[in-house]
Amino acid sequence: MQFDYASAIAQRPSDAAVPEFYGKFTYKEAYQNGKATGAVIPDPKWAGANLVKVDLTRFKGFPPCGGQPSKTLWMHKFVAPVFEACMEEAAALGLLSELHEYNGCYVPRHMGWSPKRPLSCHSWGIAVDFDASTNPYGVSRFPISPAFVRHMEERGWIWGGRWTGSYADGMHFQFTDPIPGTKVPVWQDAKASVKKPVLPAQNRRLIIDGQVITQGRVVYHGVTIAVLEDGSAYLRPTTGEEQAGRVAQPPAPSGLSARVTLLNQAGVWEPFAGRAVYSGLMLNLDAKTGDLWIRQATPEELSRARA
Ligand SMILES: [Zn+2]
């Protein structure tokens, strides 16, 4: 069963709306030897009503905590389902084994442990930290698995490694909208829409009669050939209207992944691989590079295709 990331992402609050959305609580500053530690002591009633326990032992490869196997964490009840779905998928993809340590979720405290700053998302149990020892706060280095980061960002988590200067927080993932002004990668929230394809694994190149095209649409000997933004390419016979210049941008098939698709004679879109004649053209898809070579088929190739 597929988790409904789209709904979770659509409901996610902005950073500023976190107290409103995840619940306001009263708290006292924590002191040690007369000095504020940056931790806070919240009203326990809030935690009792809003936090749920997540079993970490079911996620294969989940990294240890303080040298010991991670067992459970407390998390906000609204975020736990999306976290569990992300961890399940990450485990299945082998991404959890790329992490070295888990460093906490629910910790009622100020941002950066500074009593002068607002409360951290950790105070609501809506943020998790991984690989803290190699990704200290305020340092823009991030030797953390890029594949894991992307996995989380696609599923609606905001990665602190996108923040700059003293805010840089490469260990940190929180479930809020991106902070306005923050640069987010193209794959951020990709799971928000199943129709919008995730970015290409490769940059598709069309090589038509030796000429290279990386994005856009061309009409070539009666075939309309297009490369979309996501790297997918489609080919279909050019319509009469298009030939007359009356259609500026013919509709592309929807819901396709980053691959090459042809409209066949039955009017059905079908994936293409290898080498074949199509509508009088010779197509050759290089499986290694993803390049699609196109030229007019020779009379010999045409007759062989018909045979
Ligand atoms: Zn954090």
What's the N-to-C terminus distance?
46 Å
Spatially, the strands of the biggest sheet line up as 9-8-17-16-15
Query: Strand portion, in percent?
Result: 15-25%
The geometry reads as elongated
Number of strands: 17
Taking Cα atoms only, what radius of gyration do you get, to the nearest Å? 26 Å
**Element order: H for helix, E for strand:** HHEEHEEHEHEEEEEEEHEEEEEH
Can you tell me the residue ranges where pLDDT is under 50 for at least 5 consecutive residues? 195-201
Bound molecules: zinc ion
Could you say how many structural domains there are in total?
2
Briefly note the structural class of the backbone: alpha+beta
**What characterizes the major β-sheet?**
5 strands, mixed
- Approximate helicity band: 10-25%
Counting DSSP H or I runs of 4 or more residues, the number of helices is: 7
Mean pLDDT over the full residue set: 86
Structure in a nutshell:
With 307 residues, this protein is α+β, with helices and mostly antiparallel strands. The protein contains seven helices and 17 strands. Zinc ion binds next to strand 5.
